[in-house]
Design brief:
about 375 residues, 10 helices, single chain, alpha+beta, seven-stranded mixed beta sheet, globular, about 25% helix
């Protein structure tokens, strides 16, 4: 069956909401498919490429979006939906390829990433057919139809990976992840040294309590005051809406907290990541009580000090994003560290062959974090 692809228009919003409901029911956690105000903004403000697919009779049967973050030259493929009655004909792949081609065609993006559900292998194959490469696996990352894991993929503009800045050393707990990336992405980490990872820290008893401030407008203003230099605010397509503050004022952690999706992205810490040393356990407890069972942070792969702080507090290396950030003439690698307060269950996870090395790497790192060898051997 032939379809016509066209840019989404404001008058399509009602039909688009119905499409996302038909595909996901009430479980779709992204405002792009449910909030008319958010959808209107994305269509008209120029920060998104949004394509729709209609049949010859004008029935809306597909949608795909690339959201962009102009300051970071990074986009995100989101909102891929094909009506249940029109699956199996390759429409998801056609939509994904077309919207990514349009986004890269502007010359303003260095990469586009996608977080893909792994309840079936189909979405993984869709993005791979359109040039995306696997970057990692994030267990329990989102609440959709129950608690689900996501896989991270990225597609690059020509020449980006060839201009990566080398990373001299990383904590050894990242070794398995980098090995998986070397085979899955074709990035050479053979010259990167592994240094001993500090053991995980026990929870600090009697630590200062953590206060949660969820006034989003105030938090955004405060965030810009604390980080006036744009180079210190790198967490693409995330804006803080909550602040976690030590009662003694020793640190402020800025977060994108989403209780609907059950997730929290820790965007930045003032004055520096090491300031949360010994307090991350209490911080995660506050985040969990606020409705987020999954927390993640994004750190430069070369920032050994910051990585050690989070690794020592139970965060697990989940994904590596080579050449994520352009600085001068080179691109710098970043790594996603995650932590979940729910039991991880991979029995219903459909991991394709491309993701198997990342699953093994995650299990290896999780075991090293939560099942030290001296404990297992007793």
């Amino acid at each position: 069956m032939s379809v016509v692809l066209a840019p989404a228009a404001v008058q399509d919003i009602a039909e688009l909401r119905q499409l996302y409901f038909d595909v996901y029911g009430h479980g779709y956690p992204v405002p792009l498919g449910s909030d008319p105000a958010v959808m209107h903004r994305l269509i008209v403000d120029g920060t998104a490429h949004w394509l729709t697919a209609r049949t010859e009779r004008s029935a809306l049967v597909g949608s795909a979006v690339v959201q962009t973050d102009p300051g970071s030259r990074i986009g995100k493929l989101v909102g891929l939906a094909v009506h249940p009655g029109h699956r199996g004909g390759g429409l998801a792949s056609v939509l994904s390829g077309a919207v990514c081609d349009e986004a890269f065609g502007t010359g303003r993006l260095d990469s586009v990433y996608a977080t893909v559900r792994v309840v079936t292998e189909g979405p993984q194959h869709v993005v791979v057919r359109n040039g995306f490469r696997p970057l990692g696996l994030m267990p329990n990352a989102v609440e959709v139809d129950g608690c689900e894991s996501l896989a991270l993929f990225a597609r690059y503009a020509d020449g980006v990976l060839e201009r990566r800045a080398p990373v001299e050393r990383v904590p050894e707990r990242l070794a398995a992840l980098l090995t998986a990336a070397s085979s899955g992405i074709g990035v050479d980490y053979a010259g990167t040294r592994h240094i001993a990872t500090r053991p995980a820290r026990p929870a600090v008893t009697g630590a200062e309590p953590i206060e949660l401030i969820a006034a989003s407008a105030f938090v955004r203003r405060r965030f810009l005051d604390r980080f006036p230099d744009a180079s210190d605010r790198f967490f693409p397509l995330h804006t803080p809406n909550a602040m976690l503050v030590a009662a003694d004022g020793s640190f402020e952690a800025y977060a994108d907290l989403d209780p609907v999706a059950g997730s929290c992205a820790l965007i930045a810490v003032h004055p520096r990541p090491a300031a949360v040393t010994g307090a991350l356990e209490a911080l995660i407890s506050v985040v969990t009580r606020a409705g987020a069972d999954y927390a993640e942070t994004l750190l430069p792969l070369a920032d050994t000090e910051a990585l050690e702080v989070f690794l020592a507090s139970g965060f697990v290396p989940s994904a590596v994003y080579p050449a994520m950030r352009r600085m001068d003439d080179h691109f710098h690698d970043y790594v996603v560290l995650s932590r979940t307060s729910r039991q991880i269950d991979f029995r219903t996870t459909a991991v394709s062959a491309l993701l198997q090395p990342y699953l093994s790497a995650y299990l290896s790192a999780w075991t090293a974090t939560y099942l030290p060898l001296h404990e297992v051997s007793r």
